[in-house]
Specification:
Elements (H helix, E strand, L loop, with lengths): L1 H6 L4 H6 L4 H24 L4 H11 L4 H32 L5 H27 L10 H28 L6 H19 L2 H21 L9 H7 L1 H16 L2 H19 L1 H4 L7 H16 L15 H19 L13 H7 L2 H23 L11 H22 L3 H27 L2 H21 L4 H33 L3
Helix pairs in contact: 3-4, 5-7, 6-7, 7-8, 8-9, 9-10, 9-11, 9-12, 11-12, 12-14, 14-15, 14-17, 14-18, 15-19, 18-19, 19-20, 20-21
């Protein structure tokens, strides 16, 4: 209760220490709204006297709830207005583009970007600063400024493209998106805005995906854009993750993890290496095990200036999510039956020198993190080792070993399918067990859905008849409903047993 009393009134503490804590403030506003409704009922029913209700109203500032609702409405209006303003500016420029000279176009584009940026920064800074009376201004100015800065980031991309067209600078599409994304990321670093950080990551990933398609047909010259594309896994881990700490945003951390894991699989081409008999098996092993190894052993305390664990729970959830996706994909038999063929040219492109640098650096980082995890495990004086980390380490070792055995024997494909089906079932069972033990819905339902998906996939993959398939669907539906109702009843009984009489 003491923590709630410190953070609820007005949300000032949350917003002052966490610049992007609008979600926390909204959650606190919902709590205060429900508390005000219940307190009014208690007062009307005579459970509390009017003096106590007045004290609750003053402590939790019920009178500011209307202002919070007004700010959310203003945010919606500002969003719609910014979209209309951007659409009007684009339409005006398109209508007069052929009439203006090149100098007029350059002046207009630069002026539009600078004017929007300065106006947005002014509103945003005024909305985040504290006045002489120690009070924060209305939220509308901050939201308006952030919306204008987001529009300025979009205008920046249009400026880059149109400037290249005006001065006949022939650049590839992926270079344009990478330059655009890096510029927006620089804006996010300077302003500590989550929206700009996510936009920069998205633009950088679009440039990376375009680059994967354009690099095989381009020359061999080393450019900054080519280096970023070839080192995207390392670039994502070393650039986006520090930005997540600077902005204190879980969304940016999750986006960074997705960019790292997906680019690593694409750069190494891990799934296709399984069906190529002459491929180096360790490439697929590294690509498969590096993301979960880094995510599970990740600890915020590795950074010298961080003394709290902000992203470790999210990183471990991402490790389990990656394992679930990987085990499900590799549980299909056609991945192991040489259904895909890779030409010698494409295979040689996988063995370029640059991806090996990423694998080496990230592998060393994973080893350091696991050593730190084993050395600083919680409650090590009472228990010898964390059993969950043992299971995760076993998953990593088995996943790394299977590609080697598959390359050694052509008959190992059947055993590989069986292995990953067992791993998928163990992961689903572990999630269900965690949900039952801790009384949490998310791991329980995740494990149940994963197990149901595995059963249905194996049924659809087999050559069974329609009657058998219908029976499996009925049994799975009945099992999900029964397990869900039993779990909810169990949670209800636990809450009644733990509630004070």
């Amino acid at each position: 209760m003491a923590a709630i009393e410190m953070t609820i009134p007005g949300g000032d503490l949350a917003t002052s220490h966490y610049p992007n804590a609008s979600g926390i403030v909204m959650m606190l506003d919902n709590f205060r709204a429900k508390l005000r409704k219940e307190a009014q009922l208690w007062r009307d029913e005579g459970l509390i006297n009017p003096a106590l209700y007045t004290q609750l109203a003053e402590r939790y500032q019920f009178n500011k709830l209307e202002a919070a609702a007004r700010d959310r409405f203003v945010f919606l209006l500002i969003g719609i207005g910014c979209i209309l303003l951007a659409s009007g500016a684009i339409t005006f420029i398109a209508a007069n583009w052929d009439v203006w000279s090149r100098e007029a176009k350059v002046v207009l584009l630069i002026s539009l970007f600078i004017g929007t940026s300065i106006t947005g920064f002014s509103f945003w800074r005024e909305g985040t600063s504290i006045n002489s009376e120690g009070k924060k201004p209305p939220l509308g100015k901050k939201l308006l400024g952030e919306g204008l800065l987001f529009i300025a980031a979009l205008i920046l991309g249009a400026n880059l493209a149109l400037m290249g067209q005006l001065f006949q600078i022939n650049r590839s599409t992926y270079e344009l998106f990478l330059a655009w994304g890096l510029s927006v990321l620089a804006m996010s670093w300077g302003l500590r805005l989550t929206s700009l950080g996510i936009l920069g990551i998205v633009l950088t990933q679009i440039g990376y995906w375009f680059g994967l398609g354009e690099l095989p047909n381009s020359g061999t010259d080393l450019t900054w854009a080519r280096l970023i594309v070839q080192h995207m896994p390392l670039f994502s881990w070393l650039t986006f993750v520090p930005l997540a700490y600077w902005v204190r945003s879980r969304w940016i951390f999750a986006s960074s993890a997705f960019a790292f894991a997906s680019s690593l699989q694409l750069n190494v081409n891990s799934l296709q290496l399984l069906s190529y008999s002459q491929a180096a098996p360790w490439l697929a092993s590294f690509a498969f095990v590096l993301p979960p190894a880094l995510f599970w052993s990740y600890d915020d305390l590795l950074f010298p200036e961080i003394n709290y664990r902000l992203f470790q729970p999210l990183a471990r959830s991402l490790a389990l999510l990656f394992f679930g996706f990987l085990f499900y994909i590799l549980s299909f038999s056609w991945w192991w039956q040489n259904a895909l063929y890779i030409s010698r040219t494409n295979y040689n492109s996988v063995l370029r020198f640059f991806p090996l640098i990423d694998l080496g650096i990230l592998s060393g980082l994973a080893v350091l993190q696991w050593l730190y995890l084993l050395r600083h495990r919680p409650n090590r004086q009472h228990q010898g080792i964390d059993i969950t980390s043992v299971f995760i380490g076993s998953f990593i070792l088995i996943t790394a070993l299977v590609p080697f055995l598959h390359q050694a024997s052509s008959r190992f494909g059947v055993f590989a399918v069986f292995t990953f089906n067992v791993l998928l079932a163990l992961l689903a069972g572990g999630l269900i067990r965690e949900g039952l033990q801790l009384g949490k819905r998310r791991p329980f339902w995740s494990g149940l859905m994963l197990l149901t998906l595995q059963i249905i996939s194996r049924m659809l993959e087999s050559d069974s008849g329609l009657l058998f398939k219908s029976l499996v669907f009925i049994l799975c539906g009945w099992g999900v409903i029964s397990a869900g109702l039993w779990f909810e009843a169990r949670l209800n009984n636990l809450s009644k047993a733990n509630s004070p009489k």
